[in-house]
Amino acid sequence: MAEYAIKTEFYGINFKDRTFHCIGDGKKLNTFTALRDVGKYVVAILKRPDLTKNADILVSSYDCNYVSIIELLEKETGKKFTVFEETPEEQIKMGVPEHLVTMRAMLLDGRGVVTRGGYKVWNDKFPEVKPTTLEEVVKQSVKELQE
């Protein structure tokens, strides 16, 4: 959820300080589902028990990379972010908990794409859900963070 990437330091983005501590170059795609879309998809899934009963259902709002998130944050705020490309070992030395570094590394090296490994996204089964865009998520997150 890109909202967590923007509003918390879980993925290395610090909105207040305008920094991004990135493992690697931040250009690998990840699959994101916007928080508001989670609710929309849950309702749609519950309305189709014949289709969804006992199924593993994957949905998403969009695929993007972290550099795209930073670029949109800069555009929305009018302020530049400083990006630090680091290794997992460097982040651990900086005091970032190892379990968090492991998660960041996984998501920043491309393992965060849902369709990787042949998995299919079910978005087309729920045409009533219009997924939120990354631009909408960034705009709303910035608004909430600046209040």
Low-confidence stretches: none
Strand order of the largest sheet: 1-2-5
The separation of the N and C termini measures 21 Å
CATH homologous superfamily - what is it? NAD(P)-binding Rossmann-like Domain
Element string (H = helix, E = strand): HEEEHHEHEHHH
Q: Total number of helical segments?
A: 7
Q: What global shape is seen? A: globular
Q: Helix coverage percent of residues?
A: 40-55%
How many β-strand stretches?
A: 5
Largest sheet: 3 strands, mixed
User: Which structural class should the secondary elements be placed in?
Assistant: alpha+beta
Cα gyration radius (Å): 16 Å
The domain count comes to 1
CATH topology: Rossmann fold
At the first level of CATH, what is the class?
Alpha Beta
CATH-defined architecture = 3-Layer(aba) Sandwich
Description:
The chain has helices spanning 2-7, 35-46, 49-52, 66-77, 88-93, 98-108, 134-146; strands spanning 13-14, 19-23, 30-32, 62-64, 82-86. It is of the alpha+beta class and 147 residues long. The chain has one domain (2-136): Rossmann fold (3-Layer(aba) Sandwich). It has a 3-stranded mixed sheet with strand order 1-2-5. The mean pLDDT is 93.
Sequence-ordered SSE layout with sheet pairings:
Elements: H1 2-7, E1 13-14, E2 19-23, E3 30-32, H2 35-46, H3 49-52, E4 62-64, H4 66-77, E5 82-86, H5 88-93, H6 98-108, H7 134-146
Parallel strand pairs: 2-5
Antiparallel strand pairs: 1-2, 3-4
Helix pairs in contact: 4-7
Which short descriptors sum up this protein?
Rossmann fold, 147 residues, three-stranded mixed β-sheet, two-stranded antiparallel sheet, 7 helices
